[in-house]
Design goal:
single chain; alpha+beta; seven-stranded mixed beta sheet; six-stranded antiparallel beta sheet; 7 helices
């Protein structure tokens, strides 16, 4: 079962090929709050009935939003973990290469995950890398532009899976579902020095169009493409799901929500689980107007977003006024 959020209000439920506009709730966030209050699976509280809709046509006309938004964007966290996929080690190691004969810190982190990232149920395993993207204002809808700031050295895609979590009144995190994500980053800045990773991640990210309810499939086979002027300039498969990861989903969730500030009642978290494929690592430099397309069958419709570059003088300092 999949849910989609209409821009301006309205929730669509798709089962198989049939999609319907649910009567009543305006947002998936409202439904999630009700599910938490009743301690019931979200799928079990959905209203019956509703008119049939053409989900693909709504997506094509940019009518679908990020699956969940918090009504207070400052209470919505966009975060993620890296070096979690068995296919990502070589690309990151090349970006952060140490002196000849030495493993980079990226490769060391990856090995830590391989050795201890899949603990027995109920136990904590090795810590993954962690990063912060920004508050809910940085969540970009399907079809909307991913904006690269004027000071950025690059703006490239990272095809990922994201989990959505609402914190209950008692501080209990509740997982709502999963969607595709584009963890848009500045890989040139990251490549200068791995300590610039935090800077490179402070960019918007795109999510959706559909929210998958239930458990994440163990094996996910998707595609990541970059289109320029309607022509495909990059096309590569990506693998995700626990069968292709060095960490279990439970371990990644634990190491995010073990921090008390991330268990504040009423907050919403979108947490990304890492990637295995980057066009940047294949020598592609994205340009304004390029379109990123991320797809995987378990998630229904693809996630597409164009790249735009914001204007401004990167050498000009931000003015600060004293009170």
């Amino acid at each position: 079962m999949h849910l989609s959020q209409l821009v301006g209000g309205g929730v669509i439920c798709r089962q198989g090929e049939a999609a319907r506009l649910l009567p009543g709730p305006a947002t998936i966030f409202e439904l999630a709050e009700e599910a938490v209050r009743r301690a019931m699976p979200l799928a079990e509280i959905l209203p019956r009935g509703g008119e049939k809709v053409d989900l693909a046509a709504l997506a094509a006309s940019n009518r679908l939003d990020v699956p969940l938004r918090h009504p207070e964007p400052a209470r919505m966290y966009l975060t993620g973990t890296g070096l979690t996929h068995t296919g990502s080690a070589s690309a990151r190691d090349a970006m952060h290469a140490a002196q000849a004969g030495e493993a980079s810190d990226s490769l060391k982190m990856f090995r830590i995950g391989l050795e201890g990232g899949r603990p027995d149920p109920g136990l904590a395993g090795a810590q993954p890398e962690w990063f912060y993207k920004g508050p809910g204002t940085e969540a970009v809808a399907p079809g909307a532009a991913l904006a690269s700031p004027a000071f950025a050295l690059d703006g490239g895609e990272e095809p990922e899976i994201a989990g959505y979590y609402l914190i209950g009144p008692d501080g209990q995190p509740w997982r709502i579902g999963f969607s595709l994500a584009n963890e848009f980053s500045d890989h040139v800045t990251e490549r200068i020095n791995y300590l610039y990773l935090a800077h490179s991640k402070l960019r918007p990210a795109a999510f959706g169009p559909e929210l998958l309810l239930g458990e994440l499939p163990k094996r996910i086979e998707g595609r990541s493409r970059v289109l320029r002027g309607g022509e495909v300039i990059f096309d590569a498969p990506f693998l995700s799901g626990e069968d292709h990861m060095s960490h279990s989903i439970a371990n990644l969730e634990h190491h995010h929500f073990k921090y008390a500030p991330f268990r504040r009642p009423g907050d919403l978290h979108i947490h990304m689980f890492g990637t295995a494929t980057l066009s940047f690592s294949r020598g592609v430099t994205a340009q304004e107007g390029d379109v990123f397309e991320i797809s995987a069958p378990p998630f229904g419709l693809p996630l597409r977003n164009p790249l735009t570059v914001l204007s401004g003088d990167p050498e000009r300092a931000v003015p600060i006024r004293a009170l």
